[in-house]
Design a protein that fits this description.
Three copies of one chain form a homotrimer.
Chain A (H helix, E strand, L loop, with lengths): L2 H26 L4 H22 L6 H4 L2 H22 L1 H25 L4 H22 L13 H16 L5 H21 L17
């Protein structure tokens, strides 16, 4: 198996995992079969579509390579029919989701750097690639995005994207180090899940918004 | 009347119908005049803006040709003042909306194919062109998009976009066949409305989401 | 201080003010630190990102120049820790927000015109640049966008963008006149706030939506 085949397989695994997460949320909201597949598609590919628009890689990979939408649609449809069993796999899904987070962070940041985006912007794009699908999933199901409310999730992606940008600047962005960066995100996310780490919430009485 | 004039008129009819649908939803949510016009604009032109960004046709047609935003704005403003009468036209609006769905599916898929997007991606873009405005309308009015919950709507668009992609591959994408594809979407949608067809909803107790 | 330095400072002031508005809304929704920073980022830079995608200036300025995301993030984090004090500054925030509205309207419209977007489209893009961040903020916090419901806000931006397009057509788009256009938006917004002007809301019993 060549490196690029390995990367494609890893990428499609990330797509499948995020599609499963989106589809599960859609089933819980009682959406119909189409809705479940669509939310799965957005959860799996929304972050990458935004990334590709921002770096002007058009058409976005989600439309240019049929294996991406096919993987997302098949996975989401499978969740639609199998979801009672999936409920028992909750821990597995969370672990796979953490793996997807690590992978999408690394590929997103790397693609932005390769497209000449400066380091800070590339880190933001990398993080948005990883969390964008989940944001889209929550917007479609009329929830305040969970990534904004709970747990260490986006922060793990941000740490990973900064690591990738530093490796890139040092000329160390090879397969080994990039895998390590993905593992770092994966590890932070798993530890955060296990220890129930959360980002702080403001504790004082909230002011009225500026009413604009 | 030349073909391109006919196409433009058909296109603007689609814009007007979708603008009316968005404006009606906004009136029902008690938005102000600007809100009604804005939601009408998004409902009419949001799908096309996304399509044009995805195929790198910039600026999107909604900004490049003033007749598109003007048609959307005037229609939405008319709904704002005339909406009690429109309520009695509910069936007419539904039929026109089905016509708009067929038209936007065909033009969206065709533009994507012309921009060298592979067939599967072009079908997805064509469907998104047709349903994107309605998604935007529902997001702006804080609803779970109705297209994800109810009735055969996006599926009709998907069938039409697949038909267009097949015609294109066979070299048959001429005015006659494309009109037939638009009629196919229109017909499926009307029959689905009449017979109250719906996509299936998962019937079992929903699991907890993956909690990501 | 050169003109371009002045423009950059003014631009970053707008970013800071909109970030503060987004962060305040996020604090009120009990989002965590990351959520507050993220909503601040979207409120400050979302409109500009959309503008840059629509005129094909990629990567968008929010990713291409680190000072933009840094200003947004630092301001939002400051609001997270300081928000009780900010509540007392409500009037100040509203005035600064009106200034940001004027500035973003002028720069957004001007950039679109420079990118060869026709006048009507450029006005729409200019207005979207100014109100887009607030729309994103409200979508992320699961609110119907306040700009669609209340007060003269987007309309002030629209008036300003039309003024800029007219100045541009007349060859008068120099620093003095553009500043006047920004002041016009600022003034309309302040008077609207003071007099509690609102756009009209449809008064009759709303019909059912077209149910599409």
């Amino acid at each position: 198996m060549t490196t690029s085949t390995a990367l494609l397989l890893a990428d499609l695994t990330g797509v499948a995992v995020f599609a499963a997460s989106g589809a599960s949320a859609a089933v819980a909201k009682r959406l119909d079969l189409f809705g479940v597949v669509f939310v799965g598609f957005v959860a799996a590919l929304g972050g990458g579509i935004f990334r590709d628009l921002a770096i002007d890689e058009v058409p976005p990979l989600a439309f240019a390579d049929w294996r991406y939408p096919a993987t997302a649609a098949i996975t989401a449809a499978a969740v639609f029919w199998l979801h009672p069993q999936l409920a028992r796999l909750r821990t597995t899904v969370l672990v796979l989701d953490a793996a997807g987070l690590g992978l999408f962070t690394v590929t997103g940041t790397l693609k932005a750097l390769d497209a000449q985006v400066p380091a800070v912007g590339a880190c933001v794009i990398g993080m948005l690639t990883a969390i964008g699908g989940g944001l889209g999933r929550d917007l479609l199901t009329a929830e305040i995005p969970v990534v904004l409310r709970r747990e260490i999730y986006a922060v793990a992606a941000l740490v990973g994207s900064v690591a990738v940008a530093m490796l890139y600047a040092l000329g160390l962005a090879d397969a080994g180090w990039l895998t390590a960066a993905a593992m770092l995100v994966f590890g932070i996310r798993l530890v955060a899940l296990r220890r129930r780490w959360s980002a702080p919430v403001a504790t004082l009485r909230p002011p009225r918004g500026p009413g604009l």
